[in-house]
Specification:
307 residues, alpha/beta, D-Maltodextrin-Binding Protein, domain 2, 3 domains, globular, DNA-binding, Arc Repressor Mutant, subunit A, two-stranded antiparallel ribbon
Length: 307
């Protein structure tokens, strides 16, 4: 069986569209369609449903994907290992992070990797978790750090750490040592939109407490969200690395949120359809030690528990 056809099949399954898969892997869409059709003929089964929104796997296609995906990863790993022996780590690695994590890890990770692997080139993309997840699935990233991500047919995840969440205010509610969800529900809030990890975590906690959040400003921009809090027009909820400078200057104040305190899990995510290159593996291996070293040197308790 043609290995290239298997790679094409996995790409179409990942992207749910012949056109998107063709764009990512760099082949003409008609040629991609013919190769997948020949694979279906070889298998003697229909692997995709074709519909107006793209394609989806048939039960036979899903069973086939589950069987060949780990084999393709092992094959790619074996070939990469043979090619990479005795060579310096080089190449471009594209990394996506939320603004909070980028502000914490971006510079230390660059410095650490430059010292260990000077031949690496790094491309950082920053956005809220929903966007970063989309970029990873679409093939624009090799590695992503996401909030509260779960393993799926598109991504694999590994635990990096846990960041506790705080109510962030210009003037915290009087004599409040810890905010609960009832307190949060009574405050005007500036939060990211519902597709993002932080918002999902807060909405789930509010549902458990049987309260509704009063989100007056949906802002998918960290700087604007912090600016709204500084003016006193709204409160927000963030992990401490996002507001470390504002806390030092006194322009914002942090109050622990929830009992036990709410937290977001930081997960390293990679695509299950695209095995990591040696360069990307080298970056992934440095994420946890970089986080631990950065926290140890931060000079303040950022309330993050590393893996």
């Amino acid at each position: 069986m043609d290995i290239k056809r298997l790679e094409y099949f996995l790409s179409v399954a990942e992207h749910g569209s012949f056109s998107r898969a063709a764009s990512v892997i760099g082949v003409a869409q008609p040629a991609l369609g013919r190769q997948v059709q020949r694979l279906e003929e070889s298998c003697g089964a229909r692997l995709f449903y074709r519909h107006g929104r793209g394609v989806s796997l048939t039960p036979e296609g899903e069973a086939f994907r589950q069987r060949i995906q780990p084999l393709m990863r092992e094959l790619a790993s074996a070939m990469t290992g043979l090619a990479d022996n005795d060579r310096a780590v080089t190449g471009l690695v594209r990394i996506g992070m939320t603004p909070t994590i980028l502000s914490l890890l971006g510079l230390p990770l660059i410095q650490r990797l430059r010292a260990r692997h000077p031949g690496l080139r790094l491309n950082f993309l920053s956005g809220y978790s929903g966007y970063v997840h989309e970029w990873l699935v679409d093939g624009r990233l090799d590695i992503a750090i996401l909030h509260d991500a779960r393993r799926s047919r598109h991504i694999g995840v590994d635990f990096l750490g846990e960041a506790r969440l705080f109510l962030i205010s210009a003037r915290p509610p009087a004599r409040l040592q810890r905010a609960d969800m009832q307190t949060l529900a009574g405050l005007p809030l500036a939060l990211p939109s519902a597709t993002h990890g932080l918002r999902r975590t807060l909405e789930a906690a509010a549902a458990r407490a049987r309260v509704a959040l009063k989100v007056e400003y949906e802002l998918d921009d960290l700087d604007l969200m912090k600016a709204m809090a500084v003016t006193g027009a709204a409160h927000t909820v963030l992990a401490l690395p996002a507001v470390a400078e504002e806390l030092r200057s006194g322009s914002l104040h942090a109050t622990p949120l929830g009992s036990p305190q709410l937290a977001t899990r930081l997960m390293v995510a990679t695509s299950v359809a695209r095995p990591l290159t040696r360069a990307a593996r080298s970056v992934a291996e440095e994420l946890a030690p970089t986080l631990r070293d950065t926290l140890a040197r931060s000079g303040m308790d950022l309330h993050i528990d590393p893996a």
